[in-house]
Fold these 3 entries.
Entry 1:
Amino acid sequence: MAFYVVQFLTGLASAASLFLVASGLSIIFGVTRIVNFAHGAFYMLGAYIAFTLTEQFSGALGFWGGIVVAAAIVALAGVLVEIVLLRRIYHSPELFQLLATFGLTLMVEDLVVLIWGPDDLLGRRAPGFKGAIDFFGQNIPSYDLFLIVLGPVVLAILWLLFQRTRWGILVRAATQDRDMVAALGVNQKWLFTSVFAVGVFLAALGGALQIPRDAVHHAMDLRVIVEVFVVVVIGGLGSIVGAFVAAVLVSELNAFGILIFPKISIILVFLVMAVVLIIRPWGLFGKAEAPARRTPGLTVNPWRPLTSGERLAALAALAVAAALPLVGGNYALTVGAEIAIFVIFAASLHFLMSVGGLASFGHAAYFGLGAYGVAFLAKMAGLPMILCLLLGPLLGCVGAAVFGFFAVQLSGVYFAMLTLAFAQIVWSIAFQWVAVTGGDNGILGLWPESWAASPSHFYWLSLGIAAASVIALRIAIFSPFGYALRATRDSLLRSEAVGIDAKRIQWTAFVIAGTVAGVAGALFAYLKGSVFPDNLGISLSVDALVMVLLGGVETVSGPVIGAIVYKALNIWLVSQTDLSKLVLGAFIVVIVVVFPKGIVGMLEAFTQRRRPSSAKSSLVTSPIESAE
Amino acid sequence: MSNASPLLSVERLTKSYGGIHAVRGVSFELRSGEILALIGPNGAGKSTCFDMLNGQNTPDTGRIRLLGEDTTGKKPREVWRLGVGRTFQITATFPTMTVRENVQVALISHGHQLFNLWGSASGFATAEAGRLLDLVGMGSYADRACGELAYGDLKRLELAVALANQPKLLLMDEPTAGMAPRERIDLMRLTARIAREQSIGVLFTEHDMDVVFEHADRVLVLNRGTLIAEGSPQEVRGNPQVQAVYLGEGLVYDERHRKGASA
């Protein structure tokens, strides 16, 4: 019995830190409507800086002072980020905001390794809380007890701050209607900056307080951000009480889940999240948001199929690509095959995100599932390659059918967070379930059969499947289903009012996108000859997002161009520098801020400017009498 | 067209939010080809009533029958399948699609082709889409991006979309709000003509009394969630209770004032 009590208390102690980070995210979202992906990075920075400060200054004051000062330093960095970056993108679509803050996260990950090195760092014990308390033969670290008390204390302080101060009243008002608050003469810039500073301070404090419990390492940002996303989805984005309750719930599920399913404890958290979402899609303490009228985006440029001339040009480009084995060496062919595979992957995400308006932040899950599907079929069932390529993607299809069902119940940032959480869960299973997946060692020795083994043959195979996939997706985009999907993206209200079951349409699109991503993953497994958990990791998901964005999120051909440019750039970059994340992160930030329309979008705008626009202007003024 | 059973019958509809009774025991009927106006001051419960008929909102109590079928609590898309077209107070269209594509989406849905992944949607029912657009005078706009349209044109496009499933009932929430005076008259004349020709029942809410009195066959007056008057435009116009709550105290004051002056 005592054991369970101790386990419960450990869970409560973990909840404190999680609550701090989650409440910070919630506060920032409430006012600025930005889901700050970089929140995990600020948490990590808090831990690293606190480590340095507490090592530097001795004594109780050195420790506690170091922790608070570290959080304050990170908060200042947050202010800088808000002023320099976020102020430029408050009016961008939410997808761009998520990506920009993700770009920051990537940069911080490399910076942290650059400054503090790649090794785990073990921090000091907290002065005054070094020992443990005996509880019926079980040890409870006294620092855990401190954290257990701290959680509710912070909750109370935040409550007082929001209920009793002028600043708090302004923040609550802005959470409800920020335009109204601005119209009443409140300096919105200052309000946003201060809210961001408080949110970042809480995240950094959460990180700093972890150093006596956990090692500081350069991957702690992604781990915490996924948990925080789960917490705010369960608790309700924007609710601080919700963040507290959900943090306790998630931490306890982790603490006891380890006892029940030692290998895949995260499944339990997922199940709870799924149940909460079915019963209350906006979280336990969140409020149902009115069906938002979607902003049409950056342009209103109706899509059209390629003209016959453009089709010929595309065919010619494909013929040129098919001639690569005549001139390129083996390395060029391997790179070419990889690019072709990523064209498939990007096109599949584009179908979901541009056509369906559902920006998945965990699309790699279905890519990776396709890859694992092939690995299972080839290594365990010993099926021939052609069957593996056909059946392997079905694992991606099944995964997309299960997760997609829940994900399409939500939209916007909730959808993004949920898909990310799902991908991370799949990743954890691949990572932890060593008996089946080989864990971190992956599954090796997946080589193509002789008919596809030579680099040129495999390149042609990849190119052919890529061309077929892109054509099939284009046909779907301009099919009745594609129209219905775009309709649900443009206006849910109108779609439902013309008999469209939006959720079913979106779910179908999710399954299609997941299956096609699985095709890409299946090919990728044969290209690399192995499958690893990284094949369903977050960075791969973000690669796909950046490819679509770079090509132009509001174009039809964007993902193909984006994938080719991005992948070629990426492969070149990795061969040139060790700091590829830093460069990539900066690259993402620049795209979002400077080129939000992407390459194809810019080309379209350019050709449109050259076309005479007389036809348009005469129609705008045409008289209304034609109605009679 | 049979007058035996009403197209729409609403019985004792009630809806409250917390302690506020938005709609209290509203009952009325609507026949095919009839144009019925639902009027009342702001906050009278018009939109709540409307949303319940359309399925966007569920009544606490009461019953809605469409062509004898109970549609209470059905979802908007289910109500649409039964033959109800709807336009919104603030237009809801698909801004990134062309005008023709907007209508085609509704036609695709009506033809049960929503899950057709293979066919070409741009060639789907172009003739019917063109016919509907011509009907509302939008034929020459078919290839324009919907997001570029002027507001009055959006309202006409919405009407074409609402007519795509050959509805038996049109629900129009403030169809002329935000339009220029000339456009209002044109749109309502057009609606009335289509309704008479195809014997579609029309229920609309409206603030513009000129529009109401010119086009409505019958008028329902709602105040604080209760129906206070029902009848022809003339009857309603002459009803002192309606004048008091709806047309405003100013008129009453004016008459007294005049009486006082003549006495």
Note: Chain B is about 40% helix and 25% strand.
Entry 2:
Amino acid sequence: MDEGLGGGVRRRELVEWVGGSGEGEVLAVRGDVVVVKVGDVVVKVHEVGTDVDGLAARVRVAAAVGGLLLPPVLGPAVVRGRVVTAWPLGTPVSSDGALPMEEAGRLLAALHRVRVPGPVPPARAWSRVERAVRDVPDVVGADVVLRAFATLGPDRGGDVLVHGDWHLGQLVWRDGWRLIDVDDIGVGDPAWDLARPAALFAAGVLEPGVWSRLLDAYLDAGGVAVRRDDPWEGLERPARALVVQMAARALTAAERDGKALTEAQGALLDACGRIVAGWAGGGLGG
Amino acid sequence: MQCPKCHGNMRTFDRMGVHIEQCDGCRGVFLDYGELEAITRLETQMAAPPPPPPVAPPPAQVHYVQQPVQPGWGAAPHYGHGYHHRKHNGLSGLFFSS
């Protein structure tokens, strides 16, 4: 049976749009975002309210930056009111096995050295933080997240091509490791692409050795986001923002699902507490 | 206990069997009598060949072995209690999805 996916579009309609056969297999559902596998292609149903023109510009970037980003197969198009794109199927990183941190560092370094191909919208890393904080329910812990957010100040921006939401789920194997998910790609401050692992390391969640492998590989490959002699000069604020974003998302998800925080999520709340305490005491930056 | 320098909260960590206190605020480390010698001795045992014993007076700040730098709000050292067991519990959800 082919029940409507989030927002009403049906698998059959996605299969037809991409010219495939069979029923299509739902790979992931995150809020109203749905990813459906159709043969050797995956169709992504983007968020409700996605700006088609902005996404089209971002898809053109993926088409232009070969070897780093997975190139698009089709789209964007609108199917039954939902914005959709199609991409080659890749193999995701296994969270059980060895993490490809060196490859990830080299890919990000190469992305940040790409000459921006034509007009590209701003990266959306900062708006992701703002949205996560806006969505936080009124629960225990929300106060410290909001106060940590208040330490951040305005985004410094930049003119480098950045992914905008980088984590290991954004890496797949298809003729080599490739970056996926162009929804937030654009021009901005490249330190944002290292901010999530940096935040997880600083919060005590990610092993120091794993963080070092990523950072060293990134710097060895000529990454421009941070200086080797003082990486936290550029990283501190984006990493602080990602602590806030992840803590906010953790509270929202825990409330929605009626679950307690995991230890790792608790560590992010603790980090928010230290950020607030540090700023109250006169600031403790990098 | 309170940090003698900035009056922040100090937390106890276990480093190679030696208890040390670190300040959550200024990151300063407090060592009891004999603890610095105990740490130095352990490090000497782990290194090969063993370095000559230190002749200079001990430094005011103790630096951890090969830890990547953290920001001021960073968590306590990973090998202490508290955060040690967190890294495998819930990491994948945070590092593998938005």
Note: Chain B has a mean pLDDT of 68.
Entry 3:
Amino acid sequence: MSNFSDAMKALFYFLVFTLIAFSQVYADVCDDAVLEFQSNTSEMNNKHMMAYDDIKSYSQEFSKFKSQISGESCAKSALDQTADDRNSIKEKRIDTISKYLKLGIKEEGGKDISLEYYYLTGKSKKYKYDFEDLFNNSSEKLPALQRKYEDIVVPPKKESIVVKPAASNGKCSNTIIENETVNLQNVRNQDSVGWCYAYAAADLLSFKLKKKISAVSLYNSGQEIENDIRDRKSSNGGDIEDSIENYITKKGGLCLEEDLPSNDFKFCINQRYNDFLNNFLSVVRDRRLDQELSANQCFGSDLQAAFPGINVSLIRNHMNRFGTKKLVEFLYDQQCRKLSFPGLKLNPVTVSSTRYQADILMKTLDEQISKGEVAGIGYDYNKLNGEEGVGGHGSLVVGRRTNPESGACEYLVRNSWGKDCEQHEGVGLSCHKSCTVNGCRYSGHFWVSESRLKKSILGVTYLP
Amino acid sequence: MKNFLALFFILSGNLYAKSCNDVQVRIIFEGKPAIAKETLCSKKTPDNMLFYVSKSCDENKCEILKRKKSELEIKDYYSNIGSPGFKICNELGGIPQIFEFSQGPNLWQSTERCLFGAKDFVEISLLTREWINFLKKK
């Protein structure tokens, strides 16, 4: 009797262990299938956008996964384990279709994507969806996705023709043009003088010649600097093309920024360039030059900052003969005696609104950008910004893009007001930002839509 | 408990201190470029924009960042002579200055700051951002 009960106990334990081992095997099959599915689709899970071909590949992996767990008791549990990932893919697909529809793209893979959209968002159940079982059992409320800005990957048509966003008629290719002398990191600051045209001209030349050209050397407002800087109302403004032609014709070369600094100097006392020049002229006019140089260390320091290596006796000689008349121009000439690019021949071209329609100006601009060249523009800054009053200004255009949200063509304008951003950001106008892991900084550039720029543009100047 | 509080305050102090760093600043002294040291503190906005302010302005401690906003009249704003940010700085009683600093070897950056008194300064782009909707432009 005891032998029989021992045998029964042994059989019982054997059956229990066998059942446990057997169920473990089944569990391993499902776990392995889940792991394999997640591993094969990890790249897609990391994408932000889901094209039709992505969904197709994902669905193929899912079919393979289902065949591995088919008939297993753990199949339902395995399907549930993949539900969150599949829901996430579905949400991304809905997001992608939504962006395509906004850009006017209506089909993908030969299918009407708006029908797919209605099906995936539950608005229509009648659509025969190619991947119907992929997103089943995803009836739970989906977690909100962190939507990030990303360039749209436009799907090719069957004939492999790239579909361009309808809004820009396919002519607005993305580009930012920069080199070692003119780039997104080194925007200039005209400070307190009204010489925007000179700063734009200097950037145009610097880009072409790959050497930083002195902006203030290109002053060309048609009056003495002394009169131009007296107050804001006395500033005449100028022209990009004229400032380049005038200088090269008169001097036969160009002056470098290192010889005549425009905004790279740092004042000892906290003055603006305008204030420094006015103060300097006042000191000379009152015959206090030597007194200031000996009593005020900062005065001497600022003088050297604006006119590096200047010999003060030159100032005294000029003062004795001419007073302050054309003194600043004289000092500019002294700083630029060692001319760079002697014998330079450049023929800047301007297309102006006084002779041509805005369409022609924009076409000229596009041609330069498409060639990888920057171009100077004269424009009404206030009109561009949607503000009252007339505000003539000069800047450089250094890039172009198709706005991924609106589909509109936009131009990247390099301003000369430092790293500030004055724009009232809105439709067709936004500050350019450079971002790192630490945060984003304004670069002193801004994006403006084609329509806004066209309404305010006055001229385009380029160097052939 | 006392030890815990002490540790908490020490750690908090250290956390705040991480937003401020010593940087090198390029100045001109006796006509020659010289390097000086200054403390620069970061100010981050909810939309991830990063600005720099003086240590005295860290955590909005200084007057200009605590100042109540009201209409700010800028004369000749539309004349477009010079940087509008400089005009805003002047109108707020500050002195604008182009400013070069480095946070590491050969990592020089240029920006513009508005100085208020001997210690306080904020980046002009921060001032513009805060005051642009209050401008009465003439």
Note: Strands of chain B lie at 20-29, 32-44, 50-54, 72-74, 95-102, 108-116, 120-123, 135-137.
